[in-house]
Amino acid sequence: MAKTLILTGVLIIVFFLAxxxxxxxxxxxxxxxxxxxxxxFSFLFHRIIELAFREKRKNFVQFYLSTIVxxxxxxxxxxxxxxxxxxxxxxxxVINFFVLYLFYTIFEIWNLSSNLRQNSER
Length: 122
Prior knowledge:
Number of strands: 0
Helix content: over 70%
Largest sheet: none
Distance between the termini: 22 Å
Strand content: under 5%
Number of helices: 4
């Protein structure tokens, strides 16, 4: 979880720097809501995966893949609710959301694979 918080800290710095150097137009005004969504889900899924890894190591892969599918469905629901409310710059919101979605997903898969390699060497 510490690595995910470091990643989030880096993203916060990038968001502030984008506004500072004039690239703020590439980010939706709801960027903090999107980032909060991903931090909350990363924390939740990290706890669930920790529990699954501790309880049933045999079913870990299936459990992890199901959390990824759950994240996808919850993301679609989140986007649907935000678009239903009536945001301005909807395309920019969706693009920012999916960039962060891919960023967090790739980071967590990379982090998980490095942890699994360490555990398989034991």
